[in-house]
């Protein structure tokens, strides 16, 4: 597998952004799960 030289550097510079997006998505997912679980608890 031969990559262009610009790709590894580009990937190394952008390592923070995907992890930030992933943590944000996990937070949103947990929030939505908690909200729906609370709604089910309140309804039932």
Describe this structure in words.
This protein is mainly α and 44 residues long. Helices cover 82% and strands 0% of the residues. The protein contains two helices and no strands. The chain has helices at residues 6-13, 16-43. The protein is rod-shaped and about 45 Å long. The N and C termini lie far apart (56 Å). The mean pLDDT is 77.
In terms of DSSP E residues, the strand content is under 5%
Estimate percent helicity: over 70%
Mean pLDDT: 77
Label the structural class.
mainly alpha
User: Biggest sheet: strands, sense, closure?
Assistant: none
Note the overall shape. rod-shaped
Number of helices: 2
Q: How many β-strand stretches?
A: 0
Kindly, what is the distance between the CA atoms of the first and last residues, rounded to a whole number of angstroms? 56 Å
Describe the structure concisely for a colleague:
By secondary structure, the chain is mainly α. The protein is 82% helix and 0% strand.
């Amino acid at each position: 597998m031969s990559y262009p030289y610009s790709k590894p550097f580009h990937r190394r510079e952008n390592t923070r952004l995907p992890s930030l997006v992933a943590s944000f998505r996990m937070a949103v997912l947990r929030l939505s799960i908690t909200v729906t679980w609370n709604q089910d608890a309140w309804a039932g």
